[in-house]
Amino acid sequence: MSREKLQKLGIDLPLFPTTSVGSFPKPDYLVKARGDFLKGKTSQEALDENSRQATEFWIRKQEELGVDVLVDGEMYRGDMVAYFAEHLRGFEPGGLVRSYGNRYYHKPIITAEVRWEAPITVGWWKYAQSLTAKPVKGMLTGPYTVMDWSFNEFYPDRRATCLALAKEIRREVEALIEAGAKIIQIDEPATSVRPEELPVAIDGLRAVTEGLSAYFITHICYGAFELIYPGMLEMPVDNLDLEMSNSGLDMLELFKRHRFTKDLSVGVVDVHSHVVEEDSVVENRLRQVLEVLPQEIVWVDPDCGLKTRSVEEAIAKMQVLVRVARLLRI
Fold first, then answer.
1. What is the mean pLDDT of the chain?
2. Which of 178, 137, 144 is nearest to 24 (CA)?
C-alpha cells in the first residue's frame, strides 16, 4: 500500500482497508421522493432533504459495520454520467438508452464547449465528511467514461472530447481537495470498451490528477481486462479498483505473468447477485489474491457499486467483507 503517501495526508489505515466502490441502494423514501420530483409533485429542497437523510443513513451504517474508508453512497445522483452532464455547461439531455439489464439513462449530448462553473459534488462530500471522523472518498466519473457514454456533436474527435472534459473535471477535483478530501476516486468503467483507446483514457486521467495532492483511485469494472493489461498500470492513480469476483479472479493469471505495481482494491463480493456470499467464500477469494500479491497493497471492497441490490443485501454483503478483512488481519 502507498502507506507513506496516505500517512503524509494524515490517514493511517489498517491492513486490508475496507471500502465500497461508491453507490449504495436508495431507501424507499428517497426513491419515492425522486419520482415525485420528476413528476413535479415535490420541490428540490424536499428532495435534497431526503437525499441528506439517506446519506446520513449510509454513513452511520458504514461506521456501524466497521468500514475503514467511507463513501457518501451517491444518494443525490441517479446515473453516474448524466448527473455530471446536468451540472456542466455544454451538455443537453438526450433520449433514454439502455445501460444494462433493465437500467436506462438519458445519454447526454455535447453540443458546445464543456465548462465547469461551480462545485458539483463538494457540498455533498462536505456533508458526508461532517458526519464521521473516518475518511470519506470524493467520488467522480472520469473524462473517458463521460466521453464514451455521451453523444459528441461539438469536438472534432474522441481524444479532443476526453481531454476537454478532463480539464473541467480537474477543477472539480481541485475543489474537493480544497474542501479537505484526501482520497478521491475517479470512476472509469469504460476503459476496456475500446482497448486501442487506452492511451486516451490514460492521458485524460493524467490531465485530471497530475500534480495534485491526494490519494487517487480509479474504478474499472466488467471489461476485457486481458486486452488492456499490463498497459492499464500506466493509469496515473495510486490504486486500481477492479471487479474480480464476478469473473472468477481470472485477473490473477495476468498478475502472475506481469507484476501488479499499484495498490489494488479487490472486488470480493458480486454486486449483480442476490446471493450473500458465505464468509468462507470471500476468505477463499482473498487468500487466492494473497498467493499472488503482497498483503500490503490489498484493499477489500465489492466488485462494483451496490446500488442494484436491496438495502438489506448491500448491508449483508458489506458485513461479510468487513468480517473477513478483520479475520485476515489477525
1. 94
2. 137
Q: What pTM value is reported for the model? A: 0.95
Mean of pLDDT values over 242-267: 93
Edge-to-edge strand list for the sheet holding 215-220: 138-141, 183-187, 215-220, 239-242, 263-267, 298-301
Task: Identify the pLDDT of residue 129.
Answer: 98
Per-domain residue ranges of the chain: 3-28+59-78+116-149+156-329
Helix (H) / strand (E) containing 9:
none
Bridge-based pairing state of the strands 103-106 and 96-100: antiparallel
3-28+59-78+116-149+156-329 under CATH 3.20.20.70, yes or no: no
Instruction: Classify 317 as helix, strand or coil.
Output: helix
Burial 318-327 (b: 16+ CB within 10 A, else e): bbbbbbbbee
d(CA 226, CA 78): 30
* 214-230 confidence digits (pLDDT tens): 999 999 987 788 899 99
- How many Cβ atoms sit within 10 Å of the Cβ of residue 140? 25
211-214 contacts: CB < 8 A, separation 24 or more?
212/170, 212/173, 212/174, 212/177, 213/9, 213/177, 214/9, 214/138, 214/173, 214/176, 214/177, 214/181, 214/182, 214/183, 214/184
pLDDT of residue 103: 67
Q: How confident is the model at residue 102 (pLDDT cuts 50, 70, 90)?
A: low
Q: What is the pLDDT of residue 290?
A: 97
On the CB side of 221, how many CA atoms lie within 13 Å of its CA? 23
**Upstream peptide bond of 93 is cis (omega within 30 degrees of 0):** no
